[in-house]
Design goal:
The protein is an alpha/beta fold and 292 residues long. The protein has 2 domains: 5-176, Rossmann fold; 189-282, Pantoate-beta-alanine ligase, C-terminal domain (Pantoate--beta-alanine Ligase, Chain: A,domain 2, 2-Layer Sandwich). It contains 10 helices and 9 strands. The chain has a 6-stranded parallel sheet, sandwiched between helices. Helix 6 (127-142) crosses helix 7 (154-166) and helix 9 (204-217) packs antiparallel against helix 10 (222-235). Bound molecules: adenosine monophosphate. The site of adenosine monophosphate has 17 residues, from helix 2 and strand 5.
Length: 292
């Protein structure tokens, strides 16, 4: 397969998109920070099923990293990414420099309240503002028909759905399922940071969360199951554990004592210097007396 065209300026990006629009093509966008893995490529393939032309963006967005976070050591491999994107059916790689996205004098921030406030938002207060700002820019730069995001970053997906609705951005947001390693570890560019012993401990997170899902679906108490999952993560060597939370699947609001509607269990915890996140759906239990 042909390698994607690599474009670095917004003007060049729009010139290519204008040609595609004149040809009547449907356009899909997959925003990424690069260091691509099978999870990202699955989103490109998903975008392909909805679109005639697929754009992947590669931009390690400084606005979503705090000063103490891993911006400088975030893995970067543009040539490798371009080759992988070719095999997944991507037509254009948009890889701007920070000065193209945030030129001198840049002064606008997009902030989504409510769904951003808790969990990742509480642990990383700058994070969703940076994500919302860059995603709003990318959507307005490309004006795609569809944009694809991973369920791996579940809260981010909900923030972006809210952003698009609230700002009337005419794009359909499509969610792609989390792609996992054979032992169930959610693929992540940050998995490259893990030492061999951390890598084997990392796989415990998905096992612990899946066990919690089974307990929740059997009608167990949310607080007790969250607590047990935290203890199990602690025993597996995760430290600190930022959160394990069971929330409403649509807006991440707190539930009552037990799961009585579609929910999600979400977790974030550290192994050494690497922060891992994961989440799973918790299916709706039939309401009592309603199980016809
Ligand atoms: P990132 O490069 O980590 O910012 O992620 C770019 C996009 O890929 C986001 O929409 C992520 O949710 C998605 N993504 C990351 N990891 C996975 C995965 N393991 N499976 C599916 N999508 C993923």
């Amino acid at each position: 397969m042909r390698e994607p065209i690599i474009v670095r300026s917004i003007a060049d990006l729009r010139a290519v998109i204008n040609v595609w629009r004149r040809e009547g093509r449907r356009i899909g966008l997959v925003p990424t920070m690069g260091a691509l893995h099978e999870g990202h490529l699955s989103l490109v393939r998903l975008a392909r099923t909805h679109s005639d032309r697929v754009i992947a963006s590669l931009f390690v967005n400084p606005k979503q990293f705090a000063a103490h976070e891993d911006l400088d050591r975030y893995p970067r491999d543009e040539a490798g990414d371009a080759a992988k994107l070719a095999s997944a059916g991507c037509d254009l790689l948009f890889a701007p420099q920070p000065a193209e996205m945030y030129p001198a004098g840049f002064a606008t921030a997009v902030s989504v309240s409510g769904v951003s406030d808790d969990l990742e938002g509480a642990m990383r207060p700058h994070f969703f503002g940076g994500v919302a700002t860059v995603v709003a820019k990318l959507l307005l730069q490309c004006l795609p028909d569809t944009a694809v995001f991973g369920e791996k970053d579940y809260q981010q997906l909900l923030v972006i759905r809210r952003l698009v609705r609230d700002l009337d951005i005419p794009v359909a947001i499509i969610a792609g399922p989390t792609v996992r390693e054979p032992d169930g570890l959610a693929m992540s560019s940050r998995n490259a940071y893990l030492s061999p012993s951390e890598r084997s401990a990392a796989a415990r997170m998905n096992v612990i969360l899946k066990r919690a899902v089974a307990d929740l679906e059997r009608g167990g108490e949310i607080a007790a199951i969250e607590h047990a999952a935290k203890l199990a993560l602690d025993e597996a060597g995760f430290d600190p554990i930022d959160y394990v939370a069971v929330r409403d699947a649509e807006d991440l609001s707190a539930l009552g004592a037990r799961v009585d509607r579609p929910a999600r269990i979400l977790a974030a915890a550290w192994l050494g210097a690497t922060r891992l996140i994961d989440n799973f759906p918790v299916l709706k239990r039939p309401a009592p007396g309603n199980d016809a």
